[in-house]
Amino acid sequence: MEILVQDESIFVYDSLVRKKWTAKRVRPKVIITGSYQKTCVFGTLSLDGRQLFRALYIIYRFNEDTFLSYLKKVKRKFHKFIIFLDRAVQHYRSRKIKRHLSDNSNNIKFEYFPKDLLNSMLLKNAGSK
Asked: How many whole angstroms separate alpha carbon 89 and alpha carbon 32?
């Protein structure tokens, strides 16, 4: 059984401008696309260096369907694995994901990072300086 770690990043096609420098008495112009389109990039790494990256183009949101689609691709490549994940709602609250895990319990195991892992790492580093 292989050991994997997985995460995803979401890139938005439009920028959010909150502040802008302009000359005095000149009305600022902000060019936007008005697009809500996003790209979700998934990445999985194994201990032996193998990897799987996929970009899924989503219109409104990242949900359990997009994650399940990627999880099936991971299974196709790695077959039997334990995968370490963050606690995104799409990973552990979804009934579809739970059903898929129970159907594939011999091949797929999920392990979640501790809830306060990032906070404890930041506090430890801040205290050491």
From this structure: 30
